[in-house]
Amino acid sequence: MVDDGSYTATVDRVEGGRAVVLVEGDDEILDEVVLDEERLPADAGDGAVLSVVVEGGEVVDLEYDAETTDRRKQAARERFDRLSRRPDEPRD
Q1: How far apart are CA 37 and CA 58, in angstroms?
Q2: Are strands 28-36 and 58-64 parallel, antiparallel or unpaired?
Q3: What is the arrangement of strands in the sheet containing 58-64, beginning at the earlier edge strand?
Q4: Is the full-model pTM beyond 0.85?
Q5: Spatial CA neighbour of 51 closest among 38, 62, 37
Q6: Count of alpha carbons within 13 Å of 66, Cβ hemisphere only?
Q7: 70 CB neighbour count, 10 Å cutoff
Q8: Low-confidence residues in the chain, pLDDT < 70
Q9: CA–CA separation, 70 vs 65, rounded Å?
Q10: What CATH topology corresponds to 5-84?
Q11: What pLDDT shows up at residue 92?
Q12: In terms of Cα–Cα distance, which of 39, 41, 45 is closest to 15?
């Protein structure tokens, strides 16, 4: 587990009542944490961005970050749209 502190994390997937959360730092994945699904905030599904607090090697607080989640999803859609264009297609 990562050192005590506050981190940004992303819900990688939710399956079988468990949530796999990727803890981030300095543009890299620092750790993967598996939590009971009911610990996730209400709106936090696959791809959700969370603010997490770690104390004593355990995640003690989770908060859904709707703004960052929306921004990341929009950026991913834009990347996909750019990559899916044919090279000879005009750009918008």
Answers
A1: 15
A2: unpaired
A3: 28-36, 18-25, 5-15, 49-55, 58-64
A4: no
A5: 62
A6: 3
A7: 11
A8: 89-92
A9: 9
A10: OB fold (Dihydrolipoamide Acetyltransferase, E2P) (2.40.50)
A11: 59
A12: 45
